[in-house]
Amino acid sequence: METIQEPSAPGLPQSWSRRLSRWGSVREAAVFLFGFTLFFLQGWRKRLPSWATVREVAVFLGFALFFLVYGQTPLTGGAGLGLVGADEPRYAQIAHEMLDRFDAAHTLKGKLSACVTPYLYGQPWLEKPALYYWRAMFVFQDFGVHDWTARLPSATFAFIMVALIYLHMRRFRPGGHLDAALITVACAGIMGFARGASTDMQMAAPLAIGLLGWYAWYETDSKFWLFDIYFFTGVATLAKGPVAPFLALVIVAAFAFLRREWSILWRSFWWPGVALYFAMVLPWFIAVQYKNPDFFRVFFMEHNLERFATNRYEHQQPFWYYLVVALLAVMPWTVVAVRALIDGIQTSFCEWRARNSMNCKPCAGRPGDAFPEFLVLWALIPIAFFSLSQSKLPGYILPSIPPITILTGDYLFRRRKAGLNRWVLLGHALLCGVMTMATLLLPWFVAHGRQMPPLTALLVAAISATGAVLLILIVVKGYGVARLRLVTSGVLVVLLLFLFGVGPFFGSPAIAQSKRVIHLLDRSYSARPLAERLAKLAPGDETVAVFRVRRDVEYGLSFYRNREVVNYEEDGVPDEQHLLVMRVSGRGADPQAPAALEEYLEGRPHEQLFSWPEQGLLIYTVGAR
């Protein structure tokens, strides 16, 4: 039998001829691999999230990112509002000086040493631990020193907290997870402090994550979750000090007492976790004490114990102050949140009676569920504790807001079938209407004080508020309680666009006319616009002085000029020619300031350059001595 050999391709090497002769085997392998790939993809497809999950995550990310960063960065709404208050520019300046020291060091030891002691204008600043300064310093290093970069540490921690609330609830209490996450990110307290260059969110967010992790351990008895309470409490301790572990311990102990499960205290004591906590916390505290022998006195004695027990720092408020702060912090969800908190308290009391009485019936709805008890204790203990303090600031009870919003989200989920009480729904809608009207009239009151707005402005605000009320009522009536989160968030989106304007957004330009409100707020509450104008008259190396201005103006000008301004009353009058900023009007202004200025200048020539009526300031040029 004659064998016929296929000729090789002309001009090809013999090796290629052998490869072509094996083409049949290659085809078979390709068919096998294609079939295996199809089989693998079909199996993997079952593991891919459903379209409903993808849509839910997209809704969460869209609203969360909008509420946390819109109007805060140049790419998302523009950095419309400069640093406000005394703390924001002061903390940002400390981080800036730490970065300068870090960059000036040329060895690893030098760089680590630069991160130990916070400095403000060259002097140690030992009021707070260093976590915020570290995080802001590295953000400055990556994105530059700006007011909006100083706020990114708070925004990122807030986002991580809200995302983990969503994931925690999705795993352990599915159904109300999206409600809980959106209500958390869309309440005034979280939105406000996420946009602040301060230490409050640096403590509240890690503490919330740690407590959720601890409760996950309580339900599962898995050490994986117990890791969270030690790690994130360590992070919170580096943000604000011993108050973080104190609150965590009191909340867990109160829960054990209420449940009469004392064993959870010693079971929560986990040696690897304790070692992790101290490994995180002790190096900085030991190092800063070594470099600054008065650290213990300044930080622990003065800014923790003495701040709590006395009014040394002039932040005294009435005992009921934090009840009002908490109600305002959860706006616009206040009405529903109060009802959810009452429901949580009732459920906790019912569970307590069921455990302590043989004849008591199990609680309706969710018998044996300890989560409401834990959330109620978590919400109430910080409020009660700081209400005893003689020094009160709004950010102190920020740790109480996440449990309240989680309770609210869970409550709305459980009311989907039965519906909300009509008075609760009406109260929520009316509160959103009042908030809408107040937001629309805010520019007028900022510009004109207590003067009554014109009739046209009142009518526009009233019609808009009525529209918000009707929109919420109609949507919930037609589509159910499940849509309350979306329609309320939609109202908030419109109000934020009103305040911050439309655009810019990732390269698309802003609508200039929509920016008038945020420009007014910037000129009225931030030192940034004034600093920009002063920079045209006096470059950064020239002297600027202040006389009887608010602390936020003094610290704000110092940050934006990256140089401490001279305070006449503390430092005296500079000998060289300089610019002077003096406050002459507004709440708290000294009417005797012009006369006092003449005494300070002792006949030196000075001339008024311009006024800054939004903050009641006059700007002078003062001649050399």
Can you lay out the helices and strands and say which pair or pack?
Elements: H1 14-21, H2 23-47, H3 51-69, H4 87-104, H5 108-114, E1 119-120, E2 123-124, H6 131-143, H7 147-172, H8 177-185, H9 188-194, H10 200-220, H11 223-240, H12 243-259, H13 263-268, H14 271-291, H15 295-309, H16 321-329, H17 334-356, H18 371-387, H19 401-414, H20 422-448, H21 455-479, H22 484-500, H23 516-525, H24 528-537, E3 544-547, H25 551-561, E4 566-567, H26 568-571, E5 578-583, H27 593-601, E6 606-612, E7 617-622
Helix pairs in contact: 3-7, 3-8, 4-5, 4-6, 4-25, 6-7, 7-8, 7-10, 8-19, 10-11, 11-12, 11-14, 12-18, 16-18, 17-18, 17-19, 17-20, 18-19, 20-21, 20-22, 21-22, 24-25
Give an account of the 3D structure:
The protein is mainly α. Strands 4-3-5-7-6 form a five-stranded mixed beta sheet, with helices on both faces. Strands 1-2 form a two-stranded antiparallel ribbon. A hairpin with a 4-residue loop joins strand 6 (606-612) and strand 7. The chain has 27 helices and seven strands. It has helices spanning 14-21, 23-47, 51-69, 87-104, 108-114, 131-143, 147-172, 177-185, 188-194, 200-220, 223-240, 243-259, 263-268, 271-291, 295-309, 321-329, 334-356, 371-387, 401-414, 422-448, 455-479, 484-500, 516-525, 528-537, 551-561, 568-571, 593-601, and strands at 119-120, 123-124, 544-547, 566-567, 578-583, 606-612, 617-622. The chain is globular, with a radius of gyration of 30 Å.
